[in-house]
Amino acid sequence: MASSSSDNSSKVYSAFSLVAALGAAALVKKGLNTSWRAATGKNPPANPADPDVSINEAVLWAAVSGTMIGVARMLASRRAAHYYAKSTGHLPPQLQKDGQDASKAPAAQS
């Protein structure tokens, strides 16, 4: 039975993390759009791949929006994981130790 409970809490975490990440991304996108309008006096490019959008504007928008939305999603997912760990006493299965501890990594092959 413990496995079923773990599976259910893992599914709840996945859904909670997804909703948090999407919500954070939507909020950041709204803020980015407002900031872009304030800084440039025009709307951000709806499609940076459109040839009518200058390459400088397209690259800047892609870099700024991609970075900020990615960071917001990551922070929201981390917050969801923290809440899950605080509630259950352990990290969700998807985030169990993933071998990032360099001291425990296998020695490099020459």
TrEMBL record:
Write down the superkingdom of origin: Bacteria
Question: Pfam families of this UniProt entry?
Answer: DUF4235
Q: What UniProt keywords are attached to this protein's entry?
A: Membrane, Transmembrane, Transmembrane helix
Outline the segment boundaries, as ranges, of region: Disordered.
87-110
The record's section on InterPro entries has: DUF4235 (IPR025329)
Q: Which residues cross the membrane?
A: 12-28, 58-76
The name of this protein is DUF4235 domain-containing protein
